[in-house]
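Justification of resources, computational component.

The compute hours requested in this renewal are based largely on the per-chain cost of generating structure records like the one below. Each record pairs the submitted sequence with a full structure-token output. That output is archived, and it is also reused by downstream analysis tasks.
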Amino acid sequence: MTATTAPTTAAHNTAKSHDPDAAAVGPILLSVAVFLAGWATSIAIWGIPGLYIPALALVPVIWVMLILISRG
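The structure output for this chain reads:
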């Protein structure tokens, strides 16, 4: 009984071609999921103030992010 293997080519060998953008997707999605879970927990604990106080606190953060994005 002989085992045959297909020759590996560059198109099939994706382990060595590592895309840094694809590697950053996991931590970003995890951070967003943790943030949303924390926000949902604050709503469950404190009700309506748990909904709008974090949103109000994020206004300056989003404002600075928009300025940074617009500057290039």
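The radius of gyration is 22 Å. Residues 20-46 form the longest helix (27 residues).
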